[in-house]
Structures are given as structure tokens and as C-alpha cells.
Amino acid sequence: MNSVCVIGLGYVGLPLALSFAMKGYKVYGVDSNPDLIGELKRGETHHLESYKGKTIQEILRQQLQNGNFVPMLDYKEALGACEDIIVTVPIPVYGGKPYYEYLILCAREIKENLRPGQLILLRSTVVPGTTRNIFLPVLEESGLKCGRDFYLAYASERIAEGRAFEEFENMPTALAGFCEVSTERAVDLIKVICRAEVVVASSFEVVETAKVIENLQRDINIAMVNEFERFTKAMNLDIFEVIKVANTHKRVNLLYPGPGVGGFCIPNAFYYLNAKAEEIGVELKLSKTARMFNEGIPAYISDLVIKTMEKYSTSKKVAVLGIAMKDYSSDDRLSPALEIIEILRQRGVEVKAFDPAVKKEYEFKVNTLQEALEKVEVVLILARQHGIDFEKIFEFIPPQKAIVIDTRDVFTSKQAQEKGFVLEKI
Ligand SMILES: NC(=O)c1ccc[n+]([C@@H]2O[C@H](COP(=O)([O-])OP(=O)(O)OC[C@H]3O[C@@H](n4cnc5c(N)ncnc54)[C@H](O)[C@@H]3O)[C@@H](O)[C@H]2O)c1
């Protein structure tokens, strides 16, 4: 039976591990978080992925039952059983600086257990140069030589949360190996789960840099459309309609504005590129401006809420619908919603927030739409979720009293006019 070890069982690693398991691989899933391993062993996950009509919860339970997926804390057992090892541990950004410790700890654990013939495929998003200059030297502390005794490749991960299974399968994978054998082994491994093209690049650095700029161009695009939004708002135009019209041009692909940029990938991209840029003496003026602009959006939205309350002389209470960092996601890491809520609370606004997909508990979080909407007039929409029926807002607040601040294009002005509520769109 073929086997593979996947290290880091988060938003990427878990569905990746299960994709191999569904292909009949024995997958040893390693994670350093004991609570997570406990949950996975019980068949529990809060992820919102699905594949061919099955939820990730169903897939997880099935693959645990048939023995194809074995979650564990122990590197030794997992690495002892596999020739191929995939790494998906994160490099968070703290205070604008990438923090390599999780990746280094992971490399040290691999080094302790490394055997001749093994392939290590790094899939984390990294600062360009990390695979060669940070990851590889730790592995070689084992005394084994890369390209002779063991093999190393880098393949960027391009999935969007919520579409992970489908995108592992159908998104082209960019990959580079340390040597020919590393590349061949890594391509063969990726092809187990990826039907799309595997794009082989000339070096780790090409793929690492391509991945970071793929994310950064989205950050810049979002900053741009949020700037356009300020213009269209002053013109009394609906930015979402303007963008829909602009995007009918075949060579235009504008993203949509929103309450800010969250999650693990896009906000970190500038800091990954900038870490290397500073080292090599390059200034990233445009990228930095875009990042700073995006970091200022939560304050802009909070201002909009307060100004709206003042304009309509409402109480300083708001129902926030959606805490996740984007629509239909359970991920609230670096979510702009959390920042908006914090600013509003600091400015004396009472916040009740509802998001049935987000697992984490907060003191301002309530469990039902009704609780969020009790005794409020102002409703702030920050993310769509399958468990939030926005039409129901008007069952709890009479439309003539409701003031909806919509950052996600849930409602049109026509609907607002027909129903009789006030709609403030970004
Ligand atoms: N989330 C996405 O949509 C996405 C998309 C593309 C790329 N990526 C990249 O993939 C990587 C993983 O992201 P994620 O969203 O899955 O992160 P995550 O935080 O959801 O999961 C990472 C997991 O790694 C574990 N971990 C940390 N250090 C470890 C160690 N030394 N040994 C074993 N386990 C360890 C953590 O406990 C956690 O469960 C990141 O580099 C990210 O930038 C993420």
C-alpha cells in the first residue's frame, strides 16, 4: 500500500491528507497540536469543505474507519512508515515580520527521523529563498545530503478554503525540485491527487516568488477597488454594479470591495515579499501602499457605522452578521470583522455578532440571528454564510426601522426601496 506523511493538519493539510486517503493511500497525518489530533481522531472538524456531495466530516470519518487516515502527534512513527513527506506548517507574520519557528521545528523533527531515499515536499507559503536557505540546511544537519541521500521539492499551495478538494484536483500545481530525481518524485506524488497540469519551474525561488505575488496581486487589486468605492460612493453609484459592468470587458478582472482583507494568505503576502526585498535592497512602494490601505479599511467601515448611527439618531447598538474573513468560510484568522468589532466597542458601540460557521467563542458572539437583532436598528453585514438568512432580518426588525450597512452586496437599492429599509452600501 502506498503511504504518505502530511505534516500540519490545518486548512490545507487536512483536506490534502484526506485527498490522498481517498486515492487509497495510507496517510500518516502529523500535527503538533494535541487538541486538534484528539478532535480528528474522534472524526471532528469545523472545516467547511466538501467533495462530490460529501462533507469533510463524512470523508474524515470514512477514512478513519477504513484505516487510510491516521492522525498522530508522533513524527517518528509517521516518518518511519513513509517514503514521501509533505509539509504544510505555517509561517505567521508577527509585527510585520515572518516567524519561521514552526517551520524550523518541523525541519528539526524531520531531520531527527530522516532516512535515505525519502522525499520532502514543502507546500507552505514562504518568503522567497526559504526552502534553500532555511529549510534545507536544517535537514542536512542530519548528515544526509540533499540530491544524493534524500530529495527535496517545493510546490506552492493555491487552494481557496471551501474549495480545497476540487482545487487540489483541478488547479495546475507549480513545482520545482532540488535535482532531477527530486522533481520527478514530487511530480509523481502530486499527480496522485492533481489531474491538472504540473508546471515544473527552474528553481525553488521561482515557485516561491510566484506564489507570493499571486497573493499580493489580489491584495493590490482589492486595495484598488476599495479606493474606487470611495469615488463611486461620492458619486452616488453602486460600486458592485460599476464593477460588474467593467468586468464585462474581456481583459478586465476587478475583484470586489469589502470590509477589509483577512485570512492567512493575502494579508501576509506583502510581508513575505518585503522581508526578502529589504534583504536585497528593493523598495516595494506600490505593494506597501496597497497593504497599508487595506489595513485601514476596518477603521473606514467603523467610521461609516458611527456616522450612520449619528445621521439616523439611532442607539449605539449594532448587529454584526458574519465574523469570518470571507464569505462562506469558518476561518476568522486576521478577519477584518474582528478589527471592526474591536474599534466599534472601543468607540462605545454595543456589538452583538452572529456567525454560525465560526467555531471560536467571543464575548460579543451570540448563537442566533434573533439574539443579534434584539433591540437594534443598525445591522452591519460583513460576511455571507449559509447559516445566515438575511431576509429574516426583517422578521426581527420592522423594515421601516432597519438600517442595513452592507459590505457584501447582499441587497440592492431596489430591494431597499421596495421593502422600505435604509441601505448603506460600501
Ligand atoms: N488556508 C489556505 O487557504 C491556504 C491556501 C494556500 C496556501 N496556504 C499556506 O499553507 C500553509 C498552511 O496554512 P493553513 O491555513 O493550513 O494553516 P493552519 O494554521 O490551518 O494549519 C497549520 C497546522 O500546522 C500545525 N503545526 C504548526 N507547527 C507545526 C509543527 N512544527 N509540526 C507539526 N504541526 C505543526 C498547526 O498546529 C496547525 O494545525 C501556510 O503556509 C499557508 O500560507 C494556505
TrEMBL record:
<dbReference type="InterPro" id="IPR008927">
    <property type="entry name" value="6-PGluconate_DH-like_C_sf"/>
</dbReference>
<dbReference type="InterPro" id="IPR036291">
    <property type="entry name" value="NAD(P)-bd_dom_sf"/>
</dbReference>
<dbReference type="InterPro" id="IPR014027">
    <property type="entry name" value="UDP-Glc/GDP-Man_DH_C"/>
</dbReference>
<dbReference type="Pfam" id="PF03720">
    <property type="entry name" value="UDPG_MGDP_dh_C"/>
</dbReference>
<feature type="domain" description="UDP-glucose/GDP-mannose dehydrogenase C-terminal">
    <location>
        <begin position="319"/>
        <end position="413"/>
    </location>
</feature>
<dbReference type="Pfam" id="PF00984">
    <property type="entry name" value="UDPG_MGDP_dh"/>
</dbReference>
<dbReference type="InterPro" id="IPR028359">
    <property type="entry name" value="UDP_ManNAc/GlcNAc_DH"/>
</dbReference>
<dbReference type="InterPro" id="IPR014026">
    <property type="entry name" value="UDP-Glc/GDP-Man_DH_dimer"/>
</dbReference>
<keyword id="KW-0560">Oxidoreductase</keyword>
<dbReference type="Pfam" id="PF03721">
    <property type="entry name" value="UDPG_MGDP_dh_N"/>
</dbReference>
<dbReference type="InterPro" id="IPR036220">
    <property type="entry name" value="UDP-Glc/GDP-Man_DH_C_sf"/>
</dbReference>
<comment type="similarity">
    <text>Belongs to the UDP-glucose/GDP-mannose dehydrogenase family.</text>
</comment>
<protein>
    <submittedName>
        <fullName>Nucleotide sugar dehydrogenase</fullName>
    </submittedName>
</protein>
<dbReference type="InterPro" id="IPR001732">
    <property type="entry name" value="UDP-Glc/GDP-Man_DH_N"/>
</dbReference>
<dbReference type="InterPro" id="IPR017476">
    <property type="entry name" value="UDP-Glc/GDP-Man"/>
</dbReference>
<keyword id="KW-0520">NAD</keyword>
